[in-house]
Design a protein that fits this description.
By secondary structure, this protein is an alpha+beta fold. It contains eight helices and 19 strands. α1 packs across α8. The longest helix has 19 residues.
């Protein structure tokens, strides 16, 4: 019996990653959960948690020749050291926690510029300038996650209203100077200021579209799946959603007679390629889109470690198989000496 190819799952946690068991079985590969502290650099071996198709066992194995980085955050220091042994870019997903401003600036220099809301570093001066121009702005962490601390600031007459997750304001300010004090205390350079885009609605709820983009067994970017999140009726953000539905269904209801999904997928593929050029080796991202009432497409955010579990909600077994199998297929591609 031929020895199975072993794919490394680089992670800070020495515990099984069960979500990939079925995908590994389909591809006939072993999985090795690898933590940096258990690597023997001189012997080029690691004490890993290995899935060979039946159970997870702790055993010492040769370092896999391709790795799927499962750390969440900036590029782990261990990646450079591993790539000295296994080869450049044989560890994919160098960065999994994107700086939204870095990504915005990378895409701004491309043909995708027209799909980007205006954005900049979120200091008080810039925020006030944006508010004067757009009258409604979003202020959010540059490295935020799960939709926390996304503020909507809107000006009506001389008064300025602050929203935190809901369409009803949580407070207001009599002047720009008062808002500036609040921004100074609560949202500095670690925040992003962005033009607010009023999103289209379905059934009285705004929605977004998320495209999952992954590399396949040839190393080519592919749009693996698309879903739509419908917001809670009282919210201007979709991160805490009322429902998750197939994107095609929601787009058809919102914009009957228009074929928007292929365009969203094409933009996603371009965004993935440009982001990889700017940030380093990647194998999967998700692109979140907003569409305004006219059907204009806006790139709202890119995620470096997308939640593939969201696709389970759609109840499409073939789709779920694809989104979990593709990262391992790409790792197999990297494993090949010719890649």
């Amino acid at each position: 019996m031929a020895e199975q190819t072993c794919i490394g799952l680089l992670t800070p946690f020495f515990q099984p990653i069960t979500a990939y068991e079925r995908a590994a079985a389909s591809l006939g590969v072993e999985l090795a959960v690898v933590t940096p502290a258990r690597i023997d650099w001189q012997a080029e071996q690691v004490e890993a948690l290995v899935w060979s198709g039946a159970d997870w066992q702790t055993k010492t194995v040769d370092l896999p020749r391709a790795f799927y980085n499962r750390f969440y955050g900036p590029k782990p220091k261990v990646v450079n050291r591993l790539e000295l042994l296994v080869g450049k870019d044989k560890v994919f997903n160098h960065i999994t926690h994107f700086d939204k401003l870095d990504v915005h600036r990378a895409l701004l220099q491309s043909q995708l510029q027209r799909h980007l809301p205006a954005a900049d570093a979120g200091g008080p001066k810039q925020a006030l300038q944006f508010l004067e121009t757009w009258k409604q702005i979003i202020v959010k962490p540059r490295r935020g996650r799960l939709g926390l601390d996304i503020f909507l600031i809107r000006q009506k007459g001389k008064r300025i209203f602050l929203h935190h997750g809901t369409k009803s304001p949580v407070t207001s300010f009599p002047s720009a100077a008062d808002l500036s004090v609040w921004l100074e205390e609560n949202a500095g350079e670690d925040f992003l200021v962005q033009q607010f885009v009023p999103l289209a609605e379905v059934g009285g709820r705004i929605f977004d579209v998320r495209i999952l983009v992954q590399k396949d067994q040839t190393g080519t970017w592919q749009a693996s799946g698309a879903l739509s999140r419908l917001a809670l009726s009282y919210s201007y953000v979709t991160n805490v959603s009322h429902a998750i539905l197939p994107a095609a269904k929601v787009l058809k209801e919102a914009f009957p007679g228009r074929s928007l999904l292929p365009k969203l997928e094409a933009i996603s593929l371009t965004a993935a390629s440009l982001t990889e050029q700017a940030l380093g080796s990647l194998g999967e991202i998700s692109v979140d889109f907003g569409l305004d009432g006219h059907g204009n497409i806006w790139i709202m955010e890119l995620n470096g470690k997308p939640m593939k579990s969201l696709f389970l909600v759609l109840g499409d077994a073939r789709l779920v198989k694809t989104v979990y199998q593709r990262p391992l297929s790409y790792a197999l591609h990297l494993h090949s000496p010719s890649s």
